[in-house]
Design goal:
By secondary structure, this protein is mainly alpha-helical. It is built from 3 helices and no strands. It has helices at 4-7, 18-67, 72-88.
């Protein structure tokens, strides 16, 4: 169950120091203002939660598909069709 956030926890922020982060926060505060900032972070948190949920659902679907047994009926039908075509010749 390795999601992107578990593999690269803070990979984006490895080269960003505390001063750069402070400057980014000040710029965000100036652009959006103190009243919109909590709403912005709330919506950002919700979008991250939805992304994690969607990625885990996709991982579960892939795991289920890989663990499911292959459909032997379709391969038997294909083999019979090939045998019929070979008999016709």
């Amino acid at each position: 169950m390795n999601s992107l956030f578990q593999i690269l926890p803070l990979g984006i922020f490895q080269q960003i120091g505390p001063m750069e982060m402070f400057i980014v926060l000040v710029v965000v505060l100036l652009i959006f203002g103190p009243k919109k900032l909590p709403e912005l972070f709330r919506s950002f948190g919700k979008s991250i939660k939805e992304f994690k949920k969607a990625s885990s659902e996709i991982e579960d679907d892939i795991r289920t598909a890989m663990e499911a047994e292959p459909d032997t009926k379709s391969t038997d039908t294909a083999e019979k069709e090939l045998n019929l075509k070979a008999d016709d010749k």
